[in-house]
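Thread: Glucokinase, structure

OP (GT): Posting the sequence first so everyone is looking at the same thing. Length is 287 residues per the record. Can we get the structure tokens written out before standup tomorrow? I want them in the notebook alongside the other entries.
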Amino acid sequence: MRYVPVLEVGGTHVAAALVDPVGGVVGERLRESLDSAGSKEVVVGRLADLARRLPLPEPTRWAVAMPGPFDYARGIGDFRGADKFHSLEDVDLGAALVERVDTMTGCGFLNDAAAFGLGEAKFGAGGGADRVLFVTLGTGLGSAFIDHGRVVESGDRVPPHGWLFLASLDGRPLEDAFSRRALIERYRARTGRLVDVGDIAAAVESEPDARAVFFDAYRDLARGLTPWLDSFAPEALVLGGSIARSWGLIDDFFVPLLGESHPDVLVRGAELGDDAPMLGAAHWLHA
């Protein structure tokens, strides 16, 4: 089986691995921290350095999972309005990487949340369902609308590009209601204290303010997802990302709130962890 080299880029890290897109096996993963606020030379250099360290028998095409906004078809950065990777705006990242990495003959780019969704759909929590909405809860809201193994990026069933971070709630971006930044701000508004999400989650059992923050945020997330659950009609909703690791809060708050309007949608937790985007990217390039 031909293994596919994958470069997975996040806001704070970059990882690389050889992946079997048929058997669903991720080889040894290389991972380094990444400063998304760094200069073009720093960011591209970091990606290229890690890619060069991945041993390949011969040069080949790579799959690259990138956060948006990004012009995936052309491989060019488009981070206007984002809080990361400003130095890659209008940069031909594919050409820059090929120039620096001898084992890279070209790149196929896809959205990191789409890679996560494809990986979970093929090998993980999306198994057995034809239509699945995958949502990552973390620094922002990532999403992938998967219908019979394909990512839906256009049409009136999904938000623009299939990206929930472009969706709105009560006239504001949905990420203003649910994201790491939004949770921290909700807690600060109630208590006057600046506390990270993990500490807020840990205080839910003992602190009414922390409990109220998560209840209100998950209520708004359910409201914000409602039009897309109605239009896309998924059989399952799979949640991943760093915030979803506190699954007890999802069970306590989100599942009952969503059940009031969509009792037939199964809510599942992602199963593959960091392997999901690697597997999804490799499967996408191989298909």
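GT: Both are above now. Quick notes for whoever picks this up: The first helix runs from residue 40 to 53. The chain has eight helices and 15 strands.
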